[in-house]
Structures are given as structure tokens and as C-alpha cells.
Specification:
It is built from 13 helices and 16 strands. Helix content is 38%, strand content 18%. The strands form four sheets. The protein has a seven-stranded antiparallel beta sheet with strand order 2-6-7-1-5-4-3. It has 465 residues and is α+β, with helices and mostly antiparallel strands. The chain folds into two domains: 56-220, no CATH class; 228-429, Nucleotidyltransferase, domain 5, CATH 3.30.420.
């Protein structure tokens, strides 16, 4: 039975103690006459001050004693996370008082004195566990305000909590020669298969199915370049065809989950055939996790190859502003949509567009497959109709390719219902101006929101020079 310490702090918190101001990320509000290039230039001035964040991942090979100490650090962080969540719930349930990350961090010394096992972990990793509780609550409140499904923060089990973070490089984590020196763990072997660029800010140790990994979050100084004046392209993602380009190219869907279904089923049956709590069941669970990891890595590799092929040839890139969480509620298509993993692909595409000096722009997705790209007339089709045939102008094309051309037209500023037959698609010609490698993703003039890259960093609210 776990014992959580109680502290007489109701009076201190209820006495009018000021809460620390928290920065909330909000989307940039744009006027309808502001183009995506203005937003890119505006963000270029903003990112010059903060740099660009990147993550480098390497595999580490700890010795058995070091691995045991890593497991102890994980267990200590998990305990602090669960204590922080229980502390917040009890304070609000019985005292109607809310607390902060700073207030909870001040009680870590008392926790260490009561639970000696917490002394085996560095102070920063324990503080990061409480910071995760705070971020979980802030995300919960944000979803409540936006009207989304809230999803209250949950307690973490041993198989769920799998990483701990040193929040300051050089204080608890540093390089010692060719090895990684982690406080209270030791000098760990690391496979540096590529050089680390930029300034390291944080170090995260993560446990995966096939071993331990370390993730370095670095800040890169932005490389200033003008917007590429290559051919723009529209992309329509789907299930039968993974991605269709407005140029007529189609990328087939590998359906990796279906291709490996037999192996996954066999591994899953093996888990259910073992006695709970036995060593054989633990080995079967490990084997199942390795199979799922192999499929996930194959999917990510496929996404990287497709995104790299697109960003090296085209720019800017126009995609649909999909609500994937709503699409997966379809029982017939949820497994296929999850297998395709459109959200992961779009994030990778946006990240690679940053490095290529391009932009990934999201346009309104409604009606892209029900409109003719030539004349703009409505062309109603069922999901089983894979060919686009316009009864107004006679244009015939593949359904996905026609939708990609509609997406391209909307991205270039053509109004909905106005095809390319009477109005030639304008060419992208922008004066040479210094901008950043980051990409900007507006959600269309009707929504007037911009997501910068794939991380949602807030640009300045002014787009003037």
C-alpha cells in the first residue's frame, strides 16, 4: 500500500497566493488578404531570436548494473508523477484548492526523506515528472475550453512510463569522452552514428522494446534563404492510393498492418496463452512489442522516403486540413486510416519542407473530391467511384488525382467552384526575401489559423515589415 504524505498547506494556498503566469500557445490570426509568404517572413523575424528545435536520437548500451539503475530512476519518476496527480486530485476534491508545479516541487525534499528510493534519482528528473503532471493538466483545461473530449490525466503504470529527462544539459547529463555520463547511473556507452548539430538543451533517456535510447533536444541557428520558386503541388492522401499528386503521380499504399497481420496475430495469441505474471508471458509480451515496433519503423521509413521525394522536387506543397480524429470514428475505415497514419506523414512532410526552404499549406478539405478541377462544377461521387467524370466539361481523370488538382487550385487562391478552364493557375513568383527553414501551415482563410511547422510555435501577431 502506497502512502502519500499530507501537508498542512490549505491555508497557504487559500490565502491568495498568486499563481505563476503560464504561457499559452495561440494560433496566429491572419487577415484574409495576408498570404502564406507574409506569415513565413513574419515567423522568420520571430525565429531569429529563439532558433530552431531538433531532436537527435541515439542508441545506448548500458551494462546490467547501469540498466538496473535506469529502471530505478524510471520507477522513481513514475512514483513522483502518480503522487503529483493524486496530490492535485485530493486538494481539489477535499479542499477546493488548486496547486502549481512550483508548489509541488518544493515538497520533493520531504518526499525523498520519506521514500529513500527517490534519492537514487537526480533532482531534475523528478522535477520533470512533476512538470509532466502540470502539462497534462494544462492540456486537459485547454481541451475543456475548446469543447473537445477532455480526457482527464491518468495514473501511469510500469509499462506506460518509459522515459525520464535531464532538463539542463551539463547538470546531470554530459559527455565524458566517447561515453554519456548520467548522474547516479554512470558512464554509458553510446552509438554516435551521426554528428550532433547545434546546442544541446535537454537529454531524455527512453526505454523501447529493443533497448535503451537517448534523445538530445538541440537548438539550431536558422539558415536564411529565399523561398524556393519550384513547381507547387497538391497532395491528396487516401487509403487505396496513399498519396496522389496533382502532377498525376500516385504513391501506392503499402498496408503494412495488413501485410504483417499474421505475425501480429500469432504473437498476440502467444501472450494470451501464457499464465499472467509468469516469465513466459513476460517474454511473449516482449516479442509482441518487438513485432509492433518493427511495423511502426517500417511505416515511418516509408513516410520519410515519400516526403523526401516530394520536398526535393516541389514547393510549396498544399494538403488538406483533415480532421483525422473524426475520420477514425468510421468503423469500416478506422483500421485502414490508422495503418496509413496520415498525421505522422504530414508532420514528417512539414519537417522536411522546413529543411528544404519550402512551406506545407493546409487548405479547406470539404468537397475536394466532389468538384471538377477544370470547370469547377459539382461532380458528385460515391466512395466506390474511383474515376472522375465531369458531365459539364467532359474532363476525366483518376478520382484522387482530380482531388489533388482541386487542392492545388485552392492553395493558389482560386475560389471554390472556379476551375482552371477559364482561369489559368497563377505561377508562384515571390521576390527574393530572407526567410527561415521553418514551414507555415495555414488552415485556410475561413478558419484564419496558422500552425508553424509541425510544432505549433506561436509567431508574432504582426505581419508588417
Amino acid at each position: 500500500m502506497r502512502v502519500y504524505p499530507r501537508y498542512p498547506r490549505r491555508e497557504a494556498l487559500a490565502a491568495g497566493r498568486e499563481e505563476v503566469a503560464r504561457s499559452r500557445s495561440s494560433a496566429l490570426r491572419l487577415c484574409p488578404d495576408v498570404s502564406c509568404y507574409d506569415a513565413i517572413r513574419s515567423y522568420a523575424r520571430f525565429v531569429r531570436l529563439i532558433g530552431t528545435r531538433r531532436t537527435f536520437e541515439f542508441r545506448i548500451k548500458p551494462s546490467p548494473p547501469q540498466e538496473r539503475r535506469m529502471e530505478q530512476a524510471l520507477e522513481a519518476c513514475r512514483f513522483v508523477f502518480n503522487w503529483g496527480l493524486e496530490d492535485r486530485k485530493c486538494l481539489w476534491q477535499y479542499c477546493q484548492v488548486s496547486t502549481t508545479f512550483e508548489d509541488q516541487s518544493s515538497y520533493l525534499k520531504d518526499l525523498k526523506r520519506i521514500h529513500s528510493s527517490l534519492q537514487e534519482a537526480h533532482a531534475h528528473v523528478l522535477q520533470d515528472a512533476l512538470k509532466r503532471v502540470d502539462r497534462a493538466y494544462q492540456s486537459f483545461f485547454k481541451r475543456c475550453r475548446s469543447g473537445a473530449r477532455p480526457g482527464f490525466p491518468r495514473f501511469k503504470g510500469r509499462s506506460v512510463y518509459s522515459s525520464f529527462t535531464f532538463k539542463e544539459w551539463g547538470n546531470g547529463a554530459s559527455f565524458d569522452g566517447k561515453r554519456l555520463l548520467l548522474s547516479k547511473i554512470g558512464r554509458v556507452r553510446i552509438r554516435l552514428h551521426r554528428p550532433i548539430e547545434g546546442e544541446i538543451k535537454t537529454c531524455t533517456v527512453k526505454r523501447r522494446a529493443d533497448g535503451w535510447y537517448v534523445l538530445f533536444s538541440v537548438v539550431l541557428q536558422p539558415v536564411w534563404r529565399s523561398i524556393d520558386e519550384r513547381d507547387p503541388v497538391g497532395i491528396d492522401v487516401g487509403i487505396q492510393t496513399f498519396a496522389a499528386l496533382s502532377t498525376g503521380e500516385r504513391v501506392p499504399n503499402p498496408r503494412l498492418l495488413t501485410a504483417n497481420a499474421n505475425r501480429l496475430r500469432a504473437a498476440n495469441r502467444k501472450v494470451h496463452g501464457r499464465a499472467p505474471g509468469s516469465v513466459r508471458r513476460r517474454k511473449a509480451v516482449q516479442h509482441l512489442a518487438l513485432e509492433h515496433q518493427r511495423v511502426a519503423r517500417a511505416r515511418r521509413s516509408f513516410h520519410h522516403c515519400v516526403a523526401n521525394s516530394i520536398t526535393t522536387r516541389f514547393g510549396p506543397i498544399y494538403v488538406e486540413a483533415l480532421r483525422i480524429q473524426a475520420l477514425v470514428k468510421n468503423r469500416r475505415l478506422s483500421e485502414a486510416i490508422s495503418d496509413a497514419s496520415w498525421g505522422l506523414f504530414l508532420r514528417i512532410l512539414s519537417s522536411k519542407a522546413e529543411s528544404a526552404g519550402s512551406a506545407v499549406v493546409a487548405v479547406e478539405a470539404r468537397g475536394t473530391s466532389q468538384e471538377c478541377p477544370e470547370c469547377g462544377a459539382a461532380a458528385k461521387k460515391r466512395l466506390s467511384d474511383r474515376q472522375h467524370r465531369c458531365t459539364n466539361c467532359g474532363y476525366t481523370a483518376d478520382r484522387d488525382v482530380a482531388a489533388a488538382r482541386v487542392i492545388l487550385g485552392r492553395g493558389l487562391g482560386r475560389p471554390v467552384g472556379e476551375g482552371a478552364g477559364s482561369h489559368r493557375l497563377p505561377a508562384i513568383r515571390e521576390p527574393a526575401s530572407q526567410t527561415t527553414r521553418r514551414s507555415v501551415t495555414p488552415l485556410g482563410p475561413d478558419k484564419s489559423e496558422v500552425m508553424v511547422g509541425a510544432r505549433g510555435i506561436e509567431p508574432p501577431l504582426s505581419c508588417d515589415n
